[in-house]
Amino acid sequence: MAVIRKVWRGVTRFLASTALVTGLLAFVSLWSAVATFVPQGEVSSPDVSAWAASNPTIEPLVRTVGLHQAFSSYLFLASVLVLGLSTALCAWRRTKVAINRARTLRAAATADRQSVCDTHDLEIAFDPALSGPQALSIASETLGHLGIKAKLRGDVVAAVSSPLSVWGSPVFHWALVALMLVVLVGALVRSDGLMAVAVGQTKPDAAASYGVIHTGVWHDWSGVHRSLRLDAFDPDYRTGGLDRGPTPTVSILDGAGTVIKSQRVYPNMMLHAGSVSISSPACGFAVTIALVKASGAEAGRLIQYVDFSQTTSDGTVPVEPFTVSDSTGKVLLSGAVTVPLDRVGWRLQDGLPKEPTAHVVVWSPEGAQLVDSIVKPGESVTLLGGRQLRIVDVGWYARLAIVDDWTTPLLYAVMVVAMLGLALTLLTRQQLLVATVIEGPDGPRLAVRMRLWRNTPTNRAEIESELARALSGDEKGSVS
Questions:
Q1: How far is it, in rounded angstroms, from Cα 136 to Cα 153?
Q2: How many CB atoms are located within 10 Å of the residue 307 CB?
Q3: Widest CA span of the chain, in angstroms?
Q4: Which of 84, 99, 286, 403 has the smallest count of CB within 10 Å of its CB?
């Protein structure tokens, strides 16, 4: 048992050490700052791959320590866990202090003359010419001049804070512990990613619908039964006298297809519904293509997403190429689609052209170019075997940033509690001062019990000095 107690004391001493807490806070802050400069995602994602190619020297280190998944890496989560344990230990110690102080304050709030006589910290002699009530009145007035509002309660003068005032610090620290737990759980259960949706298109909220997706190890797709629809897109939405920029109108539908919520999404106006939050960081064009058989029957459709680019002659680039396969999965052809932008002088216009067209390029499985044509909506390009690719429509798409995290409301709630605890700590006074008159062999004295813990306007020495001066008799002429 002695060994266990020694180990326990060592562990608690280590967890409560200022050096450990300071080091962990510095590491978490630095880690979070560095993570903002490193693309987050799987190693195979386009952003991460591009960054790795342009930073070959430091990429192995970044990948090894897990900076591409900064907030779900084992190193970060372990640091937060240890910091949480340290904060919990600190919170527990502060809770024990608060319990004792609250008990002391409650007892002081009902203290009578006898209890103060039995337990007091100091005695101050006063002029024998003063009566007991006069001495208490002078003491109360003197404390008021020092910023301590005291009340006369019969033969006791008291200035006692509410027992609630001692709970600010424990509440704040326990809220920090809860905040770390919520962040930890959130990293394990959340999903966040980017989904491209064309106007009028509906996509299920499933991993396959995302272009980029990050999920915590505890995220459960089987519990997700909803879909997302892009109802409209305004490239120049204005409201309140402000230009909100490209603005999609997004609807969230439940598993039965009923609209849960529909809303315009623009900067500082996310769509929130339950655990889901949606913003729209980017937009582009959506080209709907129909594959037509030689018989003229439509075999299927696909939507190609096209992004703006300052480095291409068309002004746009395909998000990814497309392929056409037969029933066995054999690739029959591949292709890419862009949308040529309008020009004014030498400048390309970042907007849907007045007469939209699609630039279609098709290759054979061997890489030979079969088609390179500018096609208007309603027109087709003919492929080998009599098949055709028909451009059905050229419109807008929005790239939606979707976060599914049921811990988000808890995060905000815990932050509110933490702020309330911090405000209570910083703004409320923790003090205990009760005094009464006692008779002693050397004459009457003022017996004082005093505790000055937090946010008091003075100190023990000044209180003792001022009471002694006021009760000495030098000012008794002012006492009626």
A1: 10
A2: 17
A3: 122
A4: 99
With a CB cutoff of 8 Å and minimum separation 6, the contacts of 321 are 334, 335, 336
Side-chain-side CA neighbours of residue 421 (13 Å): 21
DSSP string computed for 135-169 = HHHHHHHHHHHTT---EEETTEEEEE--GGGGGHH
Amino acid at 297: A
What lies within 8 Å, CB to CB, of 480 at 6+ separation is: none
Residue ranges in 66-214 assigned as alpha helix (H): 74-109, 113-118, 132-145, 168-189
Would you list the DSSP string of 296-330? S-EEEEEEEEEEE-SSSSSSEEESS-EEEE-TT--
d(CA 376, CA 354): 12
Q: Give pLDDT tens digits for 80-114.
A: 888 888 999 999 999 999 999 999 999 999 999 99
> How far is it, in rounded angstroms, from Cα 325 to Cα 300?
11
Collapse the DSSP code of 379 into the 3-class scheme (helix H, G, I; strand E, B; otherwise coil) and give the result: coil
Cβ atoms of residues 267 and 277 within 8 Å: no
- Exposed, middle or buried, 430 (CB in 10 Å: 0-12/13-18/19+)? buried
What is the spatial distance between Cα 373 and Cα 363, in angstroms, rounded to a whole number?
12
Given a contact cutoff of 8 angstroms between Cβ atoms, the answer to whether 305 and 198 are in contact is: yes
Q: Which residues pair with 452 in a beta bridge?
A: 431
* Alpha carbon distance 408, 374 (integer Å): 47
- CB-neighbour burial class of residue 363 (10 A; exposed 0-12, middle 13-18, buried 19+): middle
Cβ neighbours for 382, distance < 8 A, ≥ 6 positions apart: 388
Which residues make Cβ contacts (< 8 Å) with residue 48, sequence separation at least 6? 39, 40, 41, 42, 68
Q: What is the pTM of this model?
A: 0.74
Tokens standing for 163?
């027992």
For the chain, which domains are there? 2-94+175-184 (no CATH), 110-161+429-478 (3.30.310), 190-282+401-420 (no CATH), 284-398 (no CATH)
Convert the pLDDT of each residue in 373-410 to its tens digit. Answer: 999 999 999 887 788 999 999 999 999 999 999 998 89
Question: Helix count (H) and strand count (E) of the chain?
Answer: 10, 23
Higher pLDDT, 64 or 279: 279
307 is written with which tokens?
């992004």
* Residue among 235, 119, 175 nearest 410 (CA): 175
Q: CA-to-CA distance for 434 and 192, rounded, in angstroms?
A: 58
Q: Which residue has the tokens 């290759």?
A: 363
Q: Can you read off the two tokens belonging to residue 406?
A: 């049921």
